[in-house]
Model the fold of this input.
Amino acid sequence: MAEGREAPIGVFDSGVGGLSVLGEISRLLPAESLLYVADCGHIPYGEKSPAFIRERCAQVADFFLEQGAKALVLACNTATVAAVADLRERHPLWPIVGMEPAVKPAAAATRSGVVGVLATTGTLQSAKFAALLDRFANDVKVITQPCPGLVELIEAGDLHSPVLRELLAGYVQPLLDAGCDTLILGCTHYPFLKPLLSQMIPPTIILIDTGAAVARQLQRLLEKDQLLANGPARQAQFWTSASPEHFRNILPTLWKPSDIVRSFSR
Done:
């Protein structure tokens, strides 16, 4: 098992959305060995209790530790809200990076003073999101839009069907009508909808997600602990709690083809 700099990084999401974050990590840190667990058998997390999500995250974290992972990335907003504090308490010496909606950069970017947030219901109802608004959005108007149904369509590999287009337009148009010039993509699944969104919104609208910021934070933590890998570009390995065949079929759409998909049975 690899140790130190050559040890892998564990990346976790409730489904395939975290592949958007995995892509940013891979682009910034191509020498890193990446392990990805998709808990697709229990999606969507937004409808689960915080206790259930914490338990799932703890099981995945234990698995990554068994694989010798040198760091953990919670590439899921809902999982971060429910479990990141608990995981950091359990593993105080382990670099752990979570997600949060990009309220601060959106507040800095807006010109109209109106920011829209596309997110899951669980993220929008969380105390953490409310705290972000209190801290960074005092001088701007933030309009939140829960987006039920989007995650499930993306999980099925649907990025451009008429059903998806109609659903997404129904969520985006009220934000545009309200004068939003900046939209936060507050779920790791949603960056996969950027091509479709670009057809629906004026080119002046700014889209913000946090995948690149997460990759940079991971780089900072690994650099601080002298854990950045030196080797050549690596291939990612995948596990899913649903059908490995379905996950393997969807990877060319959301990531790149890979045969290394195993069943996660915990």
Summary: The chain has a mean pLDDT of 93. The radius of gyration is 18 Å.
